[in-house]
Every structure is written in C-alpha cells, then in structure tokens.
Design brief:
The complex is a heterodimer of chains A (147) and B (138). Chain A has 147 residues and is α+β, with helices and mostly antiparallel strands. Chain A has helices at residues 5-9, 25-35, 49-57, 62-68; strands at 19-22, 77-86, 95-108, 115-126, 132-144. Chain A has a 5-stranded antiparallel beta sheet. The longest helix of chain A is centred in the first third of the chain and has 11 residues, at 25-35. Classes of the chains: A alpha+beta (147), B alpha+beta (138).
C-alpha cells in the first residue's frame, strides 16, 4: 500500500534527536580497507565516514529512516545524490556533535510507472569546539508499489 | 603541484569489487538492506543474484583518486550522483578532469568533474568536486 502523500509531506521539518559520534580506529581501518586503501596518516578518517557518521550520530539509523518513510522493505530504495562539504578534516578519536533533520519531500507519479517518494536529509557535523566540521545533504528515492 | 584547467586526474582502479568487503561495510554502516549481502534478495529483484556495492564505497573509490592526486585533506566539497549500481565482480576505475580553478585567499581550489566507470565506459558514478590544491611548485 502506498502511504498517504500528506503523511509523507508532514515529515518535512522532522528533527532527529541529535547526538555525538566518535570514529574508532577499527572502524576507520575497516572502512578504509573496504574502499581499497590503507588508513590515512595522522588519524585522518576516510571521508566516506560522512555517510554513516551523520546518520547514526544524529540519533537515527537507516532502519529508522525507512520506518519514518513507511518503506516496504521488498521495494527498491535508490539514491539521488550525496552532497558533502568538508570544512575541516574528520579524524579518529574526536567527538563530533550531529544535528539535522528532513528538509524536503517530493512525490513523483507517472502513468505506468511506480510512485516514487523522494526525501532530502541535511545533517551538520560540529567539532569539539563547536565549529562546523562538515555539512551533509542527501536525497533518497523510495519506490512504491500498489500491493 | 602545477594544475591547469583541462588537466586529467590520474585514474584510480578497484580491480575487483568483492562481496566480503560489502558485508564488512554493511556491518559498519548498520545497513539492513539485503541487496548488499543476500543473493536471494537480488534474484527477487531480477538482478540474477548479483550483489550491489554500497554507494558510499563507490564514492570512496572516487575519493581515493582525489586524495592520491592532491592529498588526504584535499576535498572541500563533493556532490555525487549514482546513475547505475556497481555489482560484485566488477572492475571500476575513477577518473576526472579539472574544469576550473579559483583562488580563495592564499589557497587555490580546483573544480573537477569526476566519475567511476567500467572499462567499457559505462558510467556508474558522476560527481563534481572542489579540491584544495597543494602549493604550486616549479
């Protein structure tokens, strides 16, 4: 069943609880290795941490994002874009404060094609002194099928 | 480092996208999506049991290319789109070209068009990146 458009629209403005995240060495090691390189020098974290650190650190999860959007787990989820701005390099061992929420929603309906709900999420990553270290925005498409 | 508009960024290649790495990444990301680790799930989607690499890791290959070129703290901004998935067993190469150079105070920032392709040119990822350039040397 396709969720009501109005219910999805009401998610715009939803704020995540917020929280903190510290990248551990093991995590940086394994994630760097998964991209095909050794860990970076000087405790620098691989920039791909800017995918999961904001999501998990802001007090949500991929599972929770799916739940909010009433995603049918058998239906595809696709990615429109990621937009990462890095003000200062992300490092292992530093504690980052995360804040953010759902900032946009759009439903696409076309004759003969599945309905697609698209959500934009924006999360700020602040360093220990409070200065903004990075900003991330991403837009996911949730495909809907009448069952 | 001397960089000019039109310069190609040296390519970076992942020779073989492996299921083992996808499983590691799924655990780190706490990503419950089975298309990264359950071949039966992708069979049901008509993908013949091929596993889909996580999009941040596809982006990671592009990031690795940029860091190998301009250093590990070079990335100021990267905006990425993912037109096609990367499957297990594929060989993908990141490439790019400098499209503009701007001066910000004492530093120079290169705007680059970057991508991740199969050997046959099929584009899996494309992105625009803003890269802080190391000091120019003769």
């Amino acid at each position: 069943m396709i969720p009501a458009k109005a219910a999805m629209q009401r998610l715009v403005g939803h704020r995540f609880p917020g929280g903190h995240y510290q990248i551990e060495h093991w995590e940086n090691f394994l994630l760097s290795e998964a991209t095909g390189i050794e860990p970076l020098p000087d405790a620098l974290a691989h920039p791909v941490h800017l995918f999961h650190v904001p999501i998990n650190g802001v007090g949500t999860s991929i599972t929770e994002l799916f739940r909010l959007a009433e995603v049918d787990r058998s239906a595809p989820v696709s990615i429109d874009y990621y937009d990462w701005t890095i003000h200062t390099p992300i490092r292992e061992g530093e504690t980052y404060a995360l804040s953010g929420g759902i900032t946009a929603y759009e439903r696409t309906e076309r004759e003969g094609a599945p309905t697609v709900d698209s959500f934009t999420y924006e999360i700020d990553v602040a360093g220990e002194g409070g200065a903004l270290a990075a900003q991330v925005a991403f837009r996911w498409h949730y495909w809907r099928f009448d069952s | 480092m001397k960089v000019e508009v039109g310069d190609a960024i040296p390519a970076w290649t992942m020779e073989n996208v492996t299921p083992e790495r996808m499983k590691t990444v799924a655990a780190i990301l706490r990503d419950p999506t089975p298309i990264h680790w359950d071949r039966e799930a992708t069979r049901k989607l008509g993908l013949e049991g091929r596993l889909l690499n996580q999009s941040p890791i596809n982006l990671g290959y592009v990031v690795n290319m940029l860091m190998a070129w301009a250093g590990p703290t070079c990335i100021r901004r990267i905006r990425t789109e993912f037109p096609l998935p990367v499957f297990d067993g594929e060989r993908v190469s990141a490439g790019g070209v400098v499209t503009a150079i701007e001066t910000e105070g004492d530093s120079r920032v290169a705007e680059c068009e970057v991508w991740l392709d199969l050997d046959d040119g099929t584009r899996k990822v494309h992105a625009r990146a803003w890269i802080a350039l190391p000091e120019e040397t003769e």
